[in-house]
Amino acid sequence: MQGSSIRVALLMLALAPFGLQASEPATEKVPEYALDASWPKLPLPNRWALGLINGIHVDANNHLWMFHSPELVPNYARGAAQTPPTGKCCVPAPAIIEFDEQGEVLRAWGGPEQAKGYDWPTAGHGLFVDYKGNIWIGGSQTRVGADGSPPDGMYLKFDPNGKFLLQIGGRGPSKGSLDPSRLSGASAVDVDPETNEAFIADGYGNHRVIVFDADTGEFKRQWGAYGKPPTDEKLPRYDGGPTLPKQFNLVHCIRIANDGLVYVCDRLNNRLQVFRKDGTFLAEYVYEPQTRGSGSVGNVSLWPDAQQTFMVMNDPGNFQTVLIRRADGKVLSRFGHFGTWAGEYHRNHQMEFDRKGNIYTSEDHRVQRLKIVNGVTPR
Questions:
Q1: What's the sign of the alpha-carbon dihedral 346, 348, 349, 354?
Q2: Which residues belong to the signal peptide in this entry (predicted)?
Q3: Do 120 and 171 contact (CB within 8 A), yes or no?
Q4: Which contiguous run of DSSP H or E holds residue 13?
């Protein structure tokens, strides 16, 4: 299999009404990108420093929301936070930060020390802004940590000012991929505005997509790879050969398109699976099948035109940004390289379009913005 391999034989007639087309579309002009060094405005206020970036998302106002781990700001960068201070730099920033388009901080809140009446994640993972403007975050720790910290089995919902609204699940080890009462290393969520359902990629410990009412937390349904019931069978990761695993390995992203298609990243199996919202399997795309390490399918984000023509995919194992045609999963362009210089990628974790088609990329301790340089914009 070369680059993108598409397993959709015998399915294409069924897929056409759901946005996947059997015919080859006309050649599109694809956006090209360069680093936008103007974003964010630096230095951050209040002598803030960032830990690991757990999640990013762009809201309806084209503001970038960031979730990071204040507790993972290294000790050598905490001098200003000591009593008495041991240096001018720095202070860990609050866990959740909102930036405007120009890169200015608008508000910030959250962190384990502020959690009252709910379980703050031990190892934060994922951030999503729903259609009501609410903020969702999860956690990826699946075992008791070396320091005794508990596993993450929850997803949390807040209003934009940090008021706690809902907890789905709770701390503790997995109860299995069929149990709806606790998550295990849930990595991402998307909320469907048509049904007000929260679709959770559950994820690092369990092997499923699980769906809840986004206001009450009531369990609705769940599924594993190919829409089958999820299992906890210990399966090896994909080896790049012709036979693909029958179960998810690491469910690392979930994204619902305007036409109702649900895209699920199976990161360590180097594939993207496509479903209807009821869990019916439609298609599978495999990318760079020989990739080991962090895998090749980290997350996807949808181009902000009406048809959501393109997707941007984060390829963490190859340190690249990948632009994909959504209609058939074909790779249209790839770019990026490992490194710590501006414009390079170091442990790239997530990539998201904004409302104008620019791309935000998250890594350890930083988010970068890539701007369109060839005039191709959403229409």
A1: positive
A2: 1-22
A3: no
A4: helix 12-15
CA angle 205, 207, 210 (to 5 degrees): 105
Look up residue 91 and give its two tokens. Answer: 């202070």
Identify whether 378 is part of a domain. no
Which strands, in side-by-side order, build the sheet including 164-169?
124-129, 135-139, 154-158, 164-169
The number of residues in the chain equals 379
**Spans in the chain with pLDDT lower than 70:** 1-27
Phi, psi (degrees; rounded to nearest 5) at 377: -130, 160
* Contact yes or no for 187/204 (Cβ under 8 A): yes
Instruction: Tell me the pTM.
Output: 0.93
Opening angle at CA 202, ends 200 and 286, nearest 5: 95
Q: Give me the CATH number covering residue 299.
A: 2.120.10.30
pLDDT at 129: 98
Query: Cβ contacts of residue 43 below 8 Å, gap of 6+?
Result: none
Total count of domains within the chain = 1
Residue 136 burial class via C-beta count within 10 angstroms: exposed 0-12, middle 13-18, buried 19 and up: buried
Does residue 206 sit within a domain? yes
Dihedral, CA atoms, 247, 249, 66, 151, nearest 10 degrees? 110
